[in-house]
Amino acid sequence: MLIDTHTHLFSNQFDTDRHAMVQRAIDAGVELLLLPNIDLESVGPMHQLEDAFPQNCRSMMGLHPGSVEHDWQEVLEQLQPWFGQRNYVAVGEIGIDLFWRQDNLPEQQQAFLQQIGWALELDLPVVIHSRESCSLILDLLGDMDVKGVFHCFTGSQEEADRIIARGMYVGIGGVITYKANQAIREVLKSIDRSRVLLETDSPYLAPIPHRGKRNESAYMQHVADTLADCWGISAQEVAQITTANAHKLFAL
User: Which fold has domain 2-250?
Assistant: First the structure.
């Protein structure tokens, strides 16, 4: 069994075939799908999908850094009460994104740290978005005893070492299948395998041979195959290792 630890299957890009797409994932051996929240508008569709597939979909709750606007404090006030109403596997997707915006970095930092506080209070892992901000986030975390994963990791060996030294995980998706990304494949060759999770980030970042198209969780086997090549083991062994890792981090 494979676990897609990061997939936005509630996205409107799946409006025409959402249930069929989930079934394709299940048929492909991806039997558990973890759904990171984005903003206020995504909460309803995310919960609806989880309710439609209670054995296969599990939700997270958080505010994506790309959705941190002037009203971020009010948004967090509306999101936080959900933790008392439903069971979530993580606080996520949270973090800092310096690719799309840098002008609101102070607000992104504040929103991130407030949600880290939720995770510590609730004893939940965090799912971290760290586009062009991995080292900054590691510095912000300092010596806080937080558990979680740096999703869509494409960083350096040094950043991977810092993450794993903290007891945290790296999430690996379709980008490792791209020809130009030999550097991250080299990092993966020497990484602690007990700290690696698989993900798709659907509908984004489809792996080869689907690059440029809408991604979906059924394509995660391509990620597992590439990681198997990096590690010199079978794809089945990759599934066993990464599934065990996901169960441990998210208490599945």
Answer: TIM Barrel (3.20.20)
